[in-house]
Amino acid sequence: MANSVTGRDLLDRLWQRGCAFFGTRTAIMGGAMSWVSERHLVAAISNAGGFGVIACGAMPPHLLEAEIAGTKALTNQPFGVNLITMHPQLEQLVDICVAAKVGHVVLAGGLPPKWAIERIKASGAKVICFTPALSLAKKFVRSGVDALVIEGMEAGGHIGPVSTAVLAQEILPEVREVPVFVAGGIGRGEAIAMYLELGASGVQLGTRFVCATESIAHPKFKQAFIRASARDAMPSVQLDPRFPVIPVRALQNQGTRRFMETQAEIVARFNRGEVEKDAAILEIEHFWAGALRRAVIDGDVENGSLMAGQSVGMVTREQPTAEIIEELVNQAAAALTSRLALNAVPTPQPLRA
Ligand SMILES: Cc1cc2nc3c(=O)[nH]c(=O)nc-3n(C[C@H](O)[C@H](O)[C@H](O)COP(=O)(O)O)c2cc1C
């Protein structure tokens, strides 16, 4: 008996909620990556049917305004903006998103302030937050957050301690009120199908898009990604328990070794009473902001930060964004097609005597 439902139909059904949430053809978010996720990559992802997200990072408000306008000039498809909540000018950044009628704002990098959630929602835009645990997910839902991203420790950049697979099992079955998007370690469409089947509304990928043709990342940065395998993307190490370091997953180089030395220097200055604790913590955090730009923009792959997720091993060449998304969609659809085929296997008939 022929099964008229295809894997692609099933995929469209599984991520229907995510697609409706973004107004896109696929529920693949391009995870915001500081310095990488600017107008060209963001527009390319949105034009290819995904959901591009501008990484505001440490940008001052006038640059964010220009980036939003520049992205609008390259796409008429929906895209979002990712704001880091500890940015000192968060309020102006939120106002710029509201004034530019950005449809979706992702609040990353710590607990989002209540006023920010309220101001974005009052403008009619959707608020998306990262949640590291189920308890916080429930709290975000209560405070009116429209969607959640759960990001496991396989991801590139700043990471939490729990793997994507465990977060997905803990949170997806329990949070039905809002769409939940899964991030961290996704390199192929089969994994997308798996998380959708677990209850995700979509996924967010960062590392996989770094080597997109449209990505402005320096050729040496892309080359480092293409050469690397999963085990090269390691979390940074905290030197002193008094100075917590949110681990950053990056390819190992002189920069990661220098981070250890920098921590040691800052801790020594603190011990000598030359720097306040809060200032010392900020200084340690600040190290990576400058270092990422050096690697992504200047191509200093030795001293800069090569933030990358474990899925870097699945980045094998430079490819147009549309091709990456098409490949992911085809892999997810093929995985679901084979599930349908398995289900369609006729039940064995009892042998006649
Ligand atoms: C180079 C790089 C820079 C990143 N910068 C940011 C950022 O500025 N803000 C943010 O919320 N996430 C940032 N991320 C995380 C991504 O948005 C995304 O969640 C992550 O890359 C997903 O995991 P994956 O790399 O395994 O696909 C960054 C990731 C990378 C690789």
From TrEMBL:
GO terms for molecular function: dioxygenase activity; nitronate monooxygenase activity. SUPFAM superfamilies: Inosine monophosphate dehydrogenase (IMPDH) (SSF51412). Gene3D superfamilies: Aldolase class I. Keywords: Dioxygenase, Flavoprotein, FMN, Oxidoreductase. It holds the Pfam family NMO. InterPro entries: Aldolase_TIM, NMO. It comes from the Bacteria. The keyword Protein transport does not apply. PANTHER family: 2-NITROPROPANE DIOXYGENASE. This is 2-nitropropane dioxygenase.
